[in-house]
Amino acid sequence: MKTRLLMSSVFIAAIAIQTACSTSGTTETIEVELDSSPTVQASPTSNPSTISTSTPTSTEECSIPERTLSEEEPWLLVQDVTGVWALNSDGSGLAKIIDWTETLDRIDSIRFIPAAGNAVMAVLEFDSSLFSFPTLSLISLPNGGVQFSTHLLSDSIEQTLQDSERYVDVLDVFAAVGPLNQPAWSPDGRLLAFNAAIDGDSADLYIYDPANKVLTRLTSGSTQSLTPHWSPQGTSIVQGGAEVIGWDRSGMGYQMDAMWAISIVDAGVKLLFVSEISGYENILAWPSNTSVLIDTLEANCPFHDLRTINTKSGEAQLHWTKGYDARAYDASSNTMLLAILDVSHPIPECAPTDPAGFYLLDLTTDSIQILDIDPAADAEVLFDAASGRFFIHIGDQLHAVDASGESMQFPAPDRGYKPLLISSSGDRWTFVDKDSNLWVGDETGDLIQVYDGETEVRTWNPQGDALFFLAEEEGAFVLYIAPSPNFMPIKVNANFDFPRLGDNLIWSSQ
């Protein structure tokens, strides 16, 4: 039974209290029959013996501790059109750390890229209407000071973009360093890799060293550099190159040219393979410091050609050639979960050749295990490193599967269009159902409706014991924290102005 929540309207400047609060609620317990007959060659499934669902109602006021913004712990960063706000992981200390009031008409998209274990973040700014051009800055946290800032396009390219007749000639360059740019910190948080066209006529790979204030160009060429991915030890980067991006045109994918490996030690560039497709070469993971896992997605076709490539020799090990609709990867066991959800396809050569279902693929031995879980067209799959399990959300059920194929089944609301989000502790998860309502589930089988209404963005705090979310209420965007164990939503702020495009809730340390 769905009940609208009674929520405390707590303004952080007016009331000081504790996030832990006592709530009571109605709980319905459902008996579940255990499946005792798994099929041959399929994974066994066990279910919690009872599943309880509850909707919390408040019996006493919940609130947030009265603390200033911490100087040490991770902060939650929230952006709106006026600037960037930061707060502690318990919802306290809300403070504006960056003010964009004077640039409201200049930028229409912001992307945050926090450094691992380092109180600094990269900020990519661009305006897709070409009113202003992409810039990259490094911002100190939590004081908001600017350490470094650079335009990502040369003066000549910016001048060409301002020419009403010639701007189309450099739109691919703009797209590669702006909307499609994916700056990435090295695993130790010491170096920042990004795409820019500061020195040449195309997007190339650059790295910036904040400690030594050194900017280095690593590649050159006529193609547009795309999607840099660091190796686990930070000694190399693998990236793609595209002849044509076509950002301003309809269709899916790029006119790919090749994939490259770049050494950070000696700046050597190695061709891994030529890629003459219209689509994407997806870098999924690094099974080791010298091997990268890649698959291909071509226009109007499912994923295919899953392979591991040695970045030193260029040798490729092909694991799965045929089509699949979704995948998730477990680095600890070098196992991939592949999902074939629909075997029919309007383009016959793109149709998967294996039956619909879920396949556990051991990438070391290329052995395959078929899971005893019925597929559905809207199924979602992901891997959670904290719990070491794959998760499959189908309809009103959530399956948690380990690398051996053992699985548990938990209740879930009917799957909506926003992704499942697992807590950092790995034992709680949050859903948004088909009606945009927010729910939390856990290992015990509890399923709690947290919020009845439209929610925009969600994130768990680093401890995994509280959920933050933005909700739209009467034209304003309101930030809530819902702490465990009852997940009663507490209002953190009165409202934010309409958030910018991009990440609106992100933690200061990855």
Topology:
Elements: E1 23-31, E2 45-46, E3 50-58, E4 76-80, E5 83-87, E6 95-99, E7 109-115, E8 118-126, E9 135-140, E10 146-151, H1 155-161, H2 171-177, E11 184-185, E12 192-196, E13 204-209, E14 214-217, E15 224-230, E16 236-244, E17 254-263, E18 269-274, E19 278-288, E20 291-298, E21 303-310, E22 316-320, E23 326-330, E24 335-340, E25 357-362, E26 368-370, E27 380-384, E28 389-394, E29 397-401, E30 407-411, E31 421-422, E32 428-432, E33 438-442, E34 447-451, E35 455-460, E36 466-473, E37 476-483, E38 490-491, E39 505-507
Parallel strand pairs: 2-30, 3-34
Antiparallel strand pairs: 1-3, 4-5, 4-39, 5-6, 7-8, 8-9, 9-10, 11-12, 12-13, 13-14, 15-16, 16-17, 17-18, 17-19, 19-20, 20-21, 21-22, 23-24, 24-25, 25-26, 27-28, 28-29, 29-30, 31-32, 32-33, 33-34, 35-36, 36-37, 37-38
A few lines on this structure:
With 510 residues, the protein is mainly beta. The chain contains two helices and 39 strands.
Question: What is the radius of gyration computed over CA atoms, rounded to a whole number of angstroms?
Answer: 24 Å
pLDDT below 50 for ≥5 consecutive residues: which ranges?
1-20, 22-52
Helix content: under 10%
Helix tally equals 2
Structural class: mainly beta
Terminal CA distance: 38 Å
Mean pLDDT: 85
Strand tally, please? 39
Percentage beta strand: 35-45%
> How would you characterize the largest beta sheet?
8 strands, antiparallel
Q: Quaternary arrangement of the chains shown?
A: single chain
- Global shape: globular
